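Researcher: Quick sanity check before group meeting.
Model: Go ahead. Protein one:
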Amino acid sequence: MPIPFALVCDLLDECHRLRLAQKPNAKVVADWFVNHRSLIDAQDADLAALLSTLLPEKRTDRVYCIRDASLERIVGRALMLGASRLAELARYKQPGLGLDLADCTERILTVTPNPSYSAKHQVSVEELDETLHGLASRIKWSSPAIRSSHASFSSRDRTDLEGVYRRLTIHVIQDAKGKLANSVCPVPLTNSMLASVSPRLGIKVGRQNWFKARSIKHCVSLGHGHMSVEKKLDGEYCQIHVNVTSRPPSIQIFSKSGKDSTEDRQALRGYAGEPST
């Protein structure tokens, strides 16, 4: 059975609540995986889709080009809103109200909720991930690997996203909007969860957080415990993967944000590929 998106939203909501209360959420995350282990281990469950949902900020290879203005139009069409309710949906644009698009959508669905669906027809993690992958495959700023899968998702467009919104309940709206903007509070993975993860060629290795200091005194004030300090040099950070088993050796260049920038660095690739003399 596919993993219901609502279950993931329950976890994200609880993590967000604990974060606001400045409380740890490691136990909540561990308990969620224990309670839903049968779904996660099911043969038809897509673990990559689950991780993409829990850690959307890691999917820098996907670009959707959907921000509040375009998402507002998608929601308006999906919920078939009239002029008065479209104005209600757009209230997040008014300064001083402290609202965002998800808040306004939630208010509308509170008054006129979407129809209830059986468990069989609820939005699943796999369906949402496939829809987002299809959208990203059409965007030229997505990674080459994502764009190359465009043929497999040729029928996916924003109308599919509208169909997803029609089947969402109130409590998942916040997380659906945040996932598109890659702004959902990520679920932290513990060391034990990461024990089975190993580096792979073609997948960027995450880097530690860097902070810029004005002096050594300022540097010491930025952190505590073990720290590494290095002189900042002018230039551009990148991570280069070289597959020496291919002929000729292939090169992938990842930017600091994690995007595959190989195509943007054609000149560098040509220089790196020249034989030494």
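Researcher: Fine. The other one?
Model: Protein two, sequence then structure:
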Amino acid sequence: MHSALSLGEQLKDEMKEGGQEMPFVIVQRVKSLLTAVFTVMAICMAIIPSAYSDASNASSGDETSNSVSAEQAQQEALKELSEISNGLQQLKRNVIELNSGLREMEEKLLFPSSTKYSVFVSLSSGTFFTLESVKLKLDGEFVATHMYSESQRQSLSRGGVQKLYITNLSQGNHTATAFFTGVGPNGRAYKLAQTLEFEKGDTGEYLELSIGDDASSQEPIVRMKQW
């Protein structure tokens, strides 16, 4: 168990030393190693409940026979199993933390700040429109699509923001078109589309696709804002 915990600490130290300059191939290798660690942990966690049961049953039998030494041995075995279980839980937390850091590092390596371009979806109001799906076209090519569940719609209506797409985009002029489908006024099928021509600068930028309501016409509208 000690060696497994040491492995988690070594991986954490390696990430800190590598920082943002860690090569992409190393990130991939560490992710593969984390996958292997998760597999071993799953096997161990599956075995432990059975071991607990066996040790407890054996302890019960020894109490009947008044075998004090056997009972002590079983108690020690249960204690050791408990320590192993606690160690695995700690290792699991370490691996999850490392995996989260690796995802952030991988994103920085794949999408440098100078060319990074992210597209988000928000919902400012949903009185006249129930969102079902979105498609995004960038420079004439469809690059992203998403179908929304009820829980996702609820999250957006409470002010949440969805990261729909992230890419590398060169400086210069570009065109983005968003297509939304859902249920509009009077419960009928409704489609929304909006196009934005924009200029990408030399830093990371964001495009927000915001669905709102037009109170005057009592219909939904789409606003596209770059920031």
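Researcher: One line on it for the slide.
Model: The longest strand covers residues 172-183.
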